[in-house]
Amino acid sequence: MASTSITITVDDVEYTDDVEPRLLLVQYLRERLGKTGTLVGCDTSNCGACTVHLDGTSVKACTMLAVQADGHEVTTIEGLAPNNGRDGELHPMQKAFHEAHALQCGFCTPGMIMQAINVLDEHPDPDEQTVRDGLEGNLCRCTGYQNIVKAVMAAGASTGGAHKAEGGAA
Ligand code: FES
Ligand code: FES
To answer: Is 49 a pocket residue for ligand 1 (Cβ < 6 Å)?
Structure first.
């Protein structure tokens, strides 16, 4: 199949590559760029393990072709921390997950974090139900939802939201 040239900025680095038109964005990220923090957990588009940001909005990278990201900016879990994590500092949502023990096996965590950031972008001061609704498309097979929701609410509170991690308005 004829390949197509695409140029995508991923985690602040611009890449130009020839890809087959049918290559999924998640395959491009993992297999071409080695961004293996973006995971594949299903073949039905419903687990959310592959969630990344496309121009600042979360998308499931298994539901998009790499060519559809041509000319766009992608952020993966690996580029989330300031300075792409080179100075060891975490993104506030990563810190919140760490502090709330919001992971067990960790498989869902990269996608959850990417989606959770999007939830706070859309609802800077979410109540618990808003967080749960916002994370609906991301599955945690360890069923660690309680602490995940706490982490997102804590991150919201730490960035100025009024709702506290334990629930209820401040
Ligand atoms: Fe994309 Fe499951 S791998 S939704
Ligand atoms: Fe194991 Fe969520 S922590 S799948």
So the answer is: yes
